[in-house]
Amino acid sequence: MQTLKADIQKPMQFISAGQFVSEVPWSHSRRSIDSYEVIIGVQGTLYIQQEDTPHEVKPGDVLLLLPNRVHFGHAVCDKDVSFFWFHFHCSGNHTLIDDARMAEELRLLRTRQDAEQLVADIYIPLFSTPRGIERLNILFQQLLHVANANYYTYQGTHYLLTTLLIELSEQTISEFTIGHNKKHSEINLARIMEWTRIHALTNISVCSIAEKFNYNKDYLSRFFKQKTGMNLQEYIHLLKLGKAKDLLSRTNQNIKEIAQTVGIRDEKYFMKLFKKYEQMTPSEFRKAFYLTHMNNK
């Protein structure tokens, strides 16, 4: 798998963005463009090929299309297929690297105590399925709002775009390092966090997670807090609220429906929890970023 490595000492240059929704069976046209394009799957499956590599972009998948490379639909998509898209140019140095080089660069960075001050690059894979796709969806909605708000300071779109790509890069790095040189305890933690993430929208609890992984509940809570800085119940809440914010920003579901979707039966408790973590109500969050741009061609 190839990955785009790009210098972000200057922000990426935003070009355009939107949400594609097809009302009929549809196939992507054949074309080659001079900018990068990121596609985030929202609904259905997008069948798209870049040069000789076919892809199936499903909800939660992220595809990076490269400039001056031919891409086209390799099959007809069902009606109602939908995806987010945005185009950008890199402002600084950028290149494609393979997994071996990325592993070596990350290994060297982990040996530097001042790495956080030195790193000015992001890593964007050509195809990925980020674990925290809700965070990317929320950042995209914010980007789309600002892009269509006629701000006097249009630079805001460049910085929001760069923020979104940094988030994707951080998730990529985290996922990449899980399987490289990790201690047994860290592997177990990663498994616990991933299982919790997958089941976060159900009625899970610290007790049920402890039982699943054969841990004492109190020991698991201490272990999780020691490794992550937050308790396990808080992690569950953050996962549920992350999905809730995603739904608030891109759907018309009402508050009660969203609460039930994320596994919280009591609407009032959901609103109280949301206000505690976000310092605003769900309705206030929904009203914050509402401008959009949609296309069907």
Number of domains: 2
Whole-number radius of gyration? 20 Å
The global form is globular
The share of residues in extended strands comes to 15-25%
SSE class: alpha+beta
Strand order of the largest sheet: 11-6-3-8-2-12
The CATH homologous superfamily of the largest domain is termed Regulatory protein AraC
Number of strands: 12
Largest sheet: number of strands, sense, barrel closure:
6 strands, mixed
| Ends apart, CA distance between termini | 30 Å
Extract low-pLDDT stretches: none
CATH topology of the largest domain: Jelly Rolls
Task: Give the count of helical stretches.
Answer: 11
SSE order: EEEEEEEEEHHEEHHHHHHHHHE
What is the overall pLDDT average? 89
Estimate the helix proportion, in percent.
40-55%
CATH class of the largest domain: Mainly Beta
Identify the CATH architecture of the largest domain.
Sandwich
Pfam family, one: HTH_18
Domain HTH araC/xylS-type: 190-288
GO molecular function: DNA-binding transcription factor activity; sequence-specific DNA binding
Organism: Paenibacillus xerothermodurans
Give a description of the structure.
This protein has 297 residues and is an alpha+beta fold. The chain has two domains: 3-178, Regulatory protein AraC (Jelly Rolls, Sandwich), CATH 2.60.120; 184-288, Arc Repressor Mutant, subunit A (Orthogonal Bundle), CATH 1.10.10.60. 45% of the residues lie in helices and 20% in strands. The chain has helices at 99-110, 115-118, 133-147, 155-178, 184-198, 206-212, 217-228, 232-250, 255-261, 267-278, 282-288; strands at 3-7, 13-21, 36-43, 46-50, 53-57, 62-65, 71-72, 82-89, 94-97, 121-125, 127-128, 294-295. Helix 3 (133-147) runs parallel beside helix 8 (232-250). The radius of gyration is 20 Å and the shape is globular. Residues 190-288 form the HTH araC/xylS-type domain. It comes from Paenibacillus xerothermodurans.
